[in-house]
Amino acid sequence: MVEPVAIRHLTVIALVSIGCFFLAVGTIGLLRFPNVYNRMHATSKPTTLGTATIFLAGFVRFGPGGAGLTSLVGIVFLFLTVPTGAHMIARAAQKVGVPFLGSVTWPTTDRSEADADDTSPGREGDSETSP
Amino acid sequence: MSEQLAATVIDGALILISGLCLLCGYRVIRGPTVPDRVVGLDAIATNVIAIAVLFALKTGRGLFVTASIVLAIIGFLSTVTVAKYVTEGDIITRGER
Prior knowledge:
heterodimer; A: mainly alpha; disordered C terminus; B: mainly alpha; 84% helix
């Protein structure tokens, strides 16, 4: 028979391990991907998931009152803000003129086509050699 | 027994995430364009949030979870600010473009 305290500790161990795995995956993607947009994809999604999992470990550790509730608020805040920040960086990168890989184009709708055309998306940045 | 195992795992996670912050610093220094550096700094900010939560787990003080939320707010604001600065050359604009 396993005690409840042991179950709590084992849950914390599992959640922290999963979170560390996702954070490591995000950092490896940040280092290995060839383009700003791909790196942003690598950092925003797994890093959010990893940090949310560690926040969940905090909720398990501290219980449903006080700091545990703050952990849940942190998860909600993270899921709101990280995609917003990544979206703004992506738009800024396109405005600055970071080139896309291969046949990738900027998704233009009819409304924003004129807006996207007067910027020059093909300006030569000092792009790194892709692995 | 499980408590000691949890303490060991949390210590190892702290060391691992500190190393990940250093690896993100490589991208911040080497990154060919400015948005690369912003993405790297954003990743570092998220890793520091995780470090704050892990420190709260290690010491048992729930106050550090609140500190991690403050770090999340600061990271988000800095990301948005740098993105706007790179795009428009100014941070607070009136919207006439």
